[in-house]
Amino acid sequence: MTDQLADRQETYLTGYSEILAEVADTGRRLNRGELEERRLYGEQAAEAGHSLRSLVRLHLDATRASWPGGTTASTTGVADSVLAAVAQAVDAFAEGYERAQRLAVRQEEAARREFIDDLLYGRSDLGRLAERAERFGLVLSRAHAVAVAEGPEAYDDTAPVTRLVETALISRFGDRRILITTKNGQLICIAPGDQDDVLTFFAKQAYAATDGSRVAIGRPQTGAGGVVHSYEEALSTLELAERLELDEPVLRAADLLVYPVLTRDRQAMADLVLSMLGPLREARGGAEPLLRTLEAYFDTGCTAAAAARRLTLSVRALTYRLDRIHQLTGANPADPVHRYTLQTAVIGARLLGWPAQEI
Hints:
Elements: H1 3-10, H2 16-26, H3 32-47, H4 52-65, H5 73-121, H6 126-135, E1 144-150, H7 160-173, E2 179-183, E3 186-192, H8 196-209, E4 214-217, H9 226-244, E5 250-252, H10 258-263, H11 266-277, H12 288-299, H13 304-311, H14 315-329, H15 336-352
Parallel strand pairs: 4-5
Antiparallel strand pairs: 1-3, 1-4, 2-3
Helix pairs in contact: 2-5, 3-5, 4-5, 7-8, 11-15, 12-13, 12-15, 13-14
């Protein structure tokens, strides 16, 4: 410890030797005001960045300098009183120090949460946002991609699942300018756009840690606003997967771009659904069973046997349903000319929630 540092730290012992001297004379314990003064010194020392270890050592040095001499029974009693006072004083000082540390942690967490909110909602000035991003390991001049994991329960920054996934990524990739956070109960990973291996690993870890989550990965986007765009793409992909009942645990926005295109003109899609599939409502049991049949048929590459197995039907029963669809709609699912229009209408029905919802 340098003399200059020691001089600065001596400030936090102001009044300490005097207290010990009075305790040695009277045997009293520290009063409430003295304890609070020790706590305040502890807070100030923490805020100034001094180590608790060196400060405790300083207290012990001051205690030794003030220690009562001699070995008589009377002196032993005084020593016991001084030791009790030392314990009180150091305990209060450490309590204040820890109180300041907890406050600093809370303030850091609040600053991080504010930054995350601004980053994902694009609410802050982009120039200022880029400056703040450096503090959290992001360089917003580069392209970034965002992965969002949605599990069976809501997660926050302190959840064991969050810590588990974050630890796995840090152990695997170290300091790669990766940011792990949470928002609205979802796990979020922000990584440079050219490091797809990071997002893929995040998806695997999130899936394992949450016992079967679904993860969506947005496309890499450039600039300070790129994180927002990639994040919104990932959220839209999760919503799309829910509406289309997609089974894949990891979904990439780049692979599903056709669906937003299909729904861009909602009225045109609604017209297609109603004109092509509306007649299915006349079937016994309504449109839903026949709509499921078309989905299974198209998903299995228009293979009747595979579609029948998926629906737990006989091939004969499936063929009957396809014939019934042909009769009602006038479109033959097995005919390549009709197939594309029917399949597009089936996708549109799922995107629009038909027939459960009127469109």
